[in-house]
């Protein structure tokens, strides 16, 4: 019996749950209220990822599948509006991407090296998950994050740029990950996360 599917599901589960935890803490929601639904979500994402990972063509759309699942999760269970579900999911996703890329470089020298063996991938997922959950928890406990009412927040004409950026992100992410150039990944995720965080900070200040 091969334990590889079990390892894949377990370590990918750590990774997916840490993304949920990061987003909930970043936007100051009570993560405890949706833990069981989040665990079900991670299982669904991991099953989908396991099915698609051996298909080269479909494997490249897995980031979009993950984002889609999270957007629906936050819209249905956390009761965010659809556009703000997109904003929070992509903000968390790009921050996660920056952190994980940095960890891959520090531990293995490059993303390619991190993916060169199953054990390396498991180490990267574990370290990323632990650091992100710890960091998000610290941010939450210290009272930082965005506390504006996501359901009452109204979008104005100026927010069209953010909507366009979200659309561009969704269109381009598969291509960026396909070419898998480390510094392109870093720049891409860093610029996107910086802009979205700047936007969220402005919204937070306006809602005070």
Class computed from helices, strands and strand pairing: mainly alpha
Kindly report the oligomeric state of this protein: single chain
- What proportion strand? under 5%
Q: What's the helix-strand series?
A: HHHHHHHHH
> Termini distance?
57 Å
Helix content: over 70%
Report the total helices: 9
Could you please describe the fold and organization of this structure?
The protein is mostly helical. It has one domain. Helices cover 77% and strands 0% of the residues. It is built from nine helices and no strands. The protein has helices at 4-26, 35-52, 56-59, 62-76, 82-108, 111-114, 118-141, 160-179, 182-207. It is globular.
Brief write-up:
The protein is mostly helical and 208 residues long. It has 9 helices and no strands.
Topology:
Blueprint lengths: L3 H23 L8 H18 L3 H4 L2 H15 L5 H27 L2 H4 L3 H24 L18 H20 L2 H26 L1
Keywords: Membrane, Transmembrane, Transmembrane helix
Key features of this structure:
208 residues, mainly alpha, 9 helices, 0% strand
């Amino acid at each position: 019996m091969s334990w590889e599917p079990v390892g894949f599901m377990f370590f990918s589960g750590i990774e997916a749950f840490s993304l949920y935890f990061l987003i909930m803490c970043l936007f100051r929601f009570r993560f405890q209220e949706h833990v069981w639904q989040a665990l079900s979500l991670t299982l669904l994402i991991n099953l989908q990822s396991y099915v698609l990972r051996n298909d080269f063509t479909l494997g490249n759309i897995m980031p979009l599948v993950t984002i889609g699942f999270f957007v629906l999760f936050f819209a249905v269970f956390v009761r965010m509006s659809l556009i703000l579900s997109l904003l929070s999911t992509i903000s968390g996703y790009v921050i996660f991407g920056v952190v994980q890329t940095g960890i891959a470089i520090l531990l293995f020298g490059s993303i390619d090296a991190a993916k060169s063996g199953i054990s390396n991938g498991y180490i990267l997922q574990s370290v990323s998950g632990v650091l992100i959950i710890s960091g998000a928890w610290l941010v939450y406990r210290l009272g930082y994050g965005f506390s504006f009412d996501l359901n009452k927040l109204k979008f104005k004409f100026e927010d069209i740029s953010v909507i366009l950026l979200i659309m561009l992100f969704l269109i381009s992410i598969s291509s960026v990950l396909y070419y898998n150039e480390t510094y392109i990944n870093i720049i891409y995720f860093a610029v996107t996360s910086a802009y979205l965080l700047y936007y969220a900070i402005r919204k937070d200040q306006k809602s005070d």
